[in-house]
Specification:
Shape: globular
CATH topology: Glutaredoxin
Distance between the termini: 36 Å
Number of helices: 5
Radius of gyration: 13 Å
CATH class: Alpha Beta
Strand order of the largest sheet: 4-1-5-6
CATH architecture: 3-Layer(aba) Sandwich
CATH superfamily: Glutaredoxin
Number of strands: 6
């Protein structure tokens, strides 16, 4: 399985998928921790994919999304953005609204 197929599998099998450094319970960078905490605060059940376990995955997700940084959040297969975008969407209520529209939270 090539790296794009692996990434696609994560994204299609998880309504909310966060490619991050570390795990939701043990983030290894502040940006990953911030996005993980936002999702937890909203009560979102999400899959955290630790890119530190696989260098091919770490580089592959950047090419896949054409986004240079990690973390990266996907909701129902759609790339949402990284830490700054997720935090801004959380602060202005857009993230909660999107998660409700996608039936991720009630």
């Amino acid at each position: 399985m090539n790296i794009d197929d692996k990434i696609n599998n994560y994204i299609k099998n998880s309504p909310v998928c966060l490619f991050m450094k570390g795990t939701p319970d043990s983030p290894q960078c502040g940006f990953s921790m911030a996005v993980s905490n936002v999702l937890k605060h909203l009560g979102v059940n999400f899959t955290g994919v630790n890119v530190l376990e696989d260098e091919n995955l770490r580089q592959g997700i950047k090419k896949f999304s054409d986004w240079p940084t990690i973390p990266q959040l996907y909701i129902n297969g759609e790339f949402i953005g990284g830490c700054d975008i997720v935090k801004e969407m959380f602060d202005n209520g857009e993230l909660k609204k999107l998660l409700k529209e996608k039936s991720i939270i009630s």
